[in-house]
Write a structure and sequence with these properties.
Helix content is about 30%, strand content about 30%.
């Protein structure tokens, strides 16, 4: 074998290696102490004897010499440069020792072999280890997938492998150079600081990820992982640092793209609002993915509409969200504009064998578009090669856009721009944007659908509610309704102001458990039921009792639905049981209010003196429970008092105390100055500023400022049950109408009074009370002690009677009867003549 270079001779270093000097005959003439220690044979015992006697098998001497001859035959120039081999020697202890040796000729002999030869030997395992170390170091510096560099104690390069050369921009020989000679000063300083720590502490550096940018190409840079360890002299003195640089740019960019995709997907699931969804998305994309980002959506998407799905992708778009360094510039595009989205192309299916199949109908995907080198070419209306969307950001060198497509429908687009020193966009970036756009399109479509459903539910609910303000002779009413937040959905709150006879008015507030269209529909049914019961002019507790029966019937119907009918369960996820309702009737004549509650919180009363108190009301069970009566409570309300009816969404604070919410409502009523301001103004101040958690349930507030019918607008007469008194009743009424300057109603009122008083005397018996009330209408009441309700019938032409109630109905705006504690009252209302 050919001897290796001197700087790789560690196993055969003369200072610490066993050595023997042989003459031309192969006799040992010198024997070093290291040789004595290796074989445990003294120099006196070895010198002067043939070297073959050292072999474990003396007959193998020729075989040992043949190793040198074989090397010469393979092209070595004789033995002049020495040769290497292996031999098995006899140890002084009687055993055998395999060594590796190197034979070095000292002068030439006439026979062609060495006249004198220096033989260096070491245990074979030591030689093998050295060869492994040498091979490892040699191959390490030949690796093309990692960069290897050795620095001296001053952090100057001593040696590198070829992998570092393409990234340095300097000649091949890097010896004596510092990192700052070919890297950005900032990048070089970061690496130098860490290598200096390794040099001083001896603690290896493991897995430092950093960006390195060369002076020749500073824009992109590469991401490398650095491993480093200290090199030291045999005495432990530091001599340098060895480093391994691994280019992980592609890996880190792939991981960064996956991380960006993950964060973008997470941002898309945070809201069911179209606007909030796209705003959260652009905040993730800029500046992490691009310096600027914008989302444009079709106008119809904002209101829950759906763009056409016929492949026509030229849509009027609205810029909905922007983010990044040039957000102000992009925000100027909030005006409507028309854009042509990248067309959807067929997406072939792939079989198990990897062969594409023809695309199925509707299986289409939207492709994005990327433009690079914007700064190197002119842009503007005259340059058709640069799309207009790409030039929206000054200084951008590359841009890309991807349509928001879901179910074959394009809803808008996402656009990104990179400026300055940011690396140009690549094909992988466009693929990532297309993936994000596909997921964003699904989120936008879900938000759009929710917007449509919510608008439908809110529209349905508002159509089922009365006007927000009302004016009657009895009171001034103003209401406010706030639906729950978008995550909770529309609830089942309702309110109502129902005019009753004799200038009275009914106030209603209710709450159906649950949210969604079903709760809204059930709210409409309950409101209709309450109105129907109110038209019967029943007492508040009786109204609630009848509505409770209706709810029990609805619950029974829901329970009797066929369980195999899946749609039944979907349409009625929760029954109306548990709904609450407060029903109150205010009489401006008596200035009193009678109310009853079915599980509803009590109303608040703001007295004219500025005090706020809650009515001491004993609420009955919620509707649908059954079996329990509802207790009425009567409360006097001076004119100018404000009655506040509300749902629990106004006073509940999630896990907070309801009593605290009621105290807060009382404070809000006073701060809003409901006594001194129009209620239509004060109502908004009361509900503004509610904590976000409060809007997990609908909020309904109904304010009513009471009025009174003055005494001079009310006249009452007690009449004897004598038919002759009918004429006196007519004269009394005519005189009162003259006093009120209502002579235009004299004839009709005279006929109405005559018929009602006659019926009361003829069919009821007992005393009769006649009362006139002048409010927004003229009300004529006749009360008697009978519980029999009058019934209008169609009289035959041959009959002389039976037409009284028909005449009353024809002359009245409306008429009816109601039960009282002592019998009944039949009433008639007429419009007052215009002033």
């Amino acid at each position: 074998m050919r001897a290796t270079e001197s700087n790789q001779d560690y196993p055969f270093a003369v200072t610490n290696t066993a050595a023997a000097l042989l003459d031309g005959a192969g006799t040992v003439v010198a024997w070093t102490p290291a040789a004595e220690a290796l074989l445990e044979r003294r120099s006196a015992d070895v010198c002067g004897r043939p070297a073959r006697d050292l072999l474990a098998d003396a007959g193998s001497w020729e075989a040992v010499l043949a190793q040198g001859r074989q090397g010469a035959q393979e092209g070595w120039e004789g033995w002049q440069e020495g040769w290497e081999g292996r031999a098995t020697l006899r140890h002084g202890s009687g055993g055998e020792l395999e060594i590796g040796f190197r034979a070095i000729p000292l002068d030439d002999g006439a026979r062609g072999d060495a006249a004198r030869c220096l033989v260096l030997g070491a245990p074979m395992e030591l030689v093998a280890r050295w060869r492994q170390d040498h091979a490892f170091t040699h191959e390490l510096f030949l690796q093309g997938r990692v960069g290897l560099a050795v620095f001296d104690a001053d952090l100057r390069l001593l040696r590198t492998n070829s992998h570092l050369l393409p990234y340095t921009g300097v000649p091949v020989d890097l010896s004596g150079r510092r990192l700052a000679d070919f890297l950005w000063a900032e990048d070089a300083r970061i690496i130098d600081d860490r290598l200096r720590e390794v040099l001083h502490s001896g603690v290896p550096l493991i897995g430092l990820n950093t960006t390195v940018r060369t002076l020749d190409d500073p824009r992109g840079g590469r991401i490398v992982t650095i491993q480093a360890f200290r090199l030291q002299e045999p005495d432990g003195h530091p001599m340098g640092v060895a480093t391994v640089f691994t280019d992980v740019t592609d890996h880190e960019r792939s991981r960064g793209r996956l991380d960006l995709l993950y964060r973008a997907t997470g941002a898309l699931g945070g809201s069911l609002s179209v606007l909030r969804t796209v705003e959260d998305l652009v905040k993730v994309l800029a500046p992490a993915f691009g310096d600027c980002a914008a989302v444009d959506l079709a106008e119809t998407v904002l209101t829950g509409g759906e763009p056409p799905a016929d492949g026509h992708l030229t849509l009027p778009l609205v810029r909905m969200a922007v983010a990044g360094a040039e957000a102000d510039v992009l925000r100027t595009g909030t005006a409507q504009f028309t854009a042509v989205l990248p067309a959807a192309v067929p997406r072939p299916a792939v079989t198990g064998a990897g062969v594409p199949e023809p695309a199925a109908p509707g299986a289409r995907e939207c492709r994005g578009e990327m433009v690079t080198g914007l700064g190197a070419r002119p842009s503007g209306p005259g340059n058709g090669t640069v799309p207009e969307w790409a030039t929206s950001v000054p200084g951008a060198h590359s841009a890309m856009t991807a349509p928001l497509c879901a179910r074959g429908i394009a809803f808008g687009r996402i656009t990104l721009w990179r400026t300055g020193d940011a690396p140009p966009l690549e094909a992988d970036d466009l693929a990532l944007l297309e993936e994000i756009a596909a997921r964003a399109a699904v989120a936008v479509d879900n938000a759009r659908r929710y917007t449509k459903e919510r608008r439908t539910a809110v529209g349905l609910q508002r159509s089922l509610l009365p006007p927000a303000t009302a004016e009657t002779p009895a009171l001034e009413a103003a209401s406010v309704y706030l639906p729950a937040d978008s995550d909770s959905g529309v609830g089942g709150d309702w309110f109502d102001v129902i005019p009753l006879s004799s200038a009275r008015v009914a106030l209603v507030v209710g709450d159906v458990a649950g949210h969604g269209l079903y709760a809204t529909a059930m709210m409409g049914r309950l409101r209709s039921a309450v109105r129907a019961m109110a038209d019967l002019e029943l007492e508040p507790e009786e109204v609630l009792a009848h509505v409770d029966d209706m709810v029990l019937q609805v619950v029974a119907e829901a329970e009797s639905d066929d369980p195999e009918d899946g749609e039944a369960g979907m349409l009625a996820p929760s029954g109306p049981a548990g709904a609450t309702c407060l029903y109150a009737v205010y009489d401006p004549v008596t200035r009193s209010c009678v109310m009853a509650s079915a599980g509803h919180p009590p109303p608040a009363v703001v007295s004219p003196d500025g005090t706020v108190e809650y009515v001491d009301l004993s609420p009955g069970p919620p509707l649908g429970v059954g079996g329990w009566p509802f207790e009425p409570v009567e409360r006097d309300l001076p004119p100018g008092s404000v009655l506040a009816l509300y749902t629990d969404g106004l006073i509940e604070r999630g896990e907070g105390d309801i009593d605290e919410g009621m105290r807060n409502l009382a404070d809000r009523l006073l701060r809003a100055d409901v006594l001194g301001r129009p209620l239509r103004q004060a109502r908004h101040d009361i509900v503004e500023g509610l904590p976000p958690g409060r809007l997990r349930d609908d909020v309904t507030l109904l304010l009513a400022r009471t009025r009174a019918v003055e005494a001079d607008s009310i006249t009452t007469w007690q009449l004897d049950p004598d038919p002759a008194i009918v004429g006196d009743a007519r004269h009394l009424v005519l005189d009162q109408l003259t006093a009120w300057d209502l002579d235009e109603l004299a004839f009709s009122t005279e006929l109405i009074v005559s018929e009602l008083v006659t019926n009361a005397i003829r069919h009821a018996g007992g005393p009769v009370r006649l009362r006139l009330i002048r409010a927004d209408t003229l009300t004529c009441e006749v009360s008697d002690s009978s519980n029999t309700q009058p019934r209008m019938r169609r009289a035959r032409s041959s009959e002389e009677g039976g037409r009284g109630l028909y005449i009353v109905a024809q002359l009245s705006h409306r008429w009816g009867s109601r039960y009282t504690t002592g019998g009944k009252t039949v009433w008639s209302e007429q419009h007052l003549p215009p002033i």
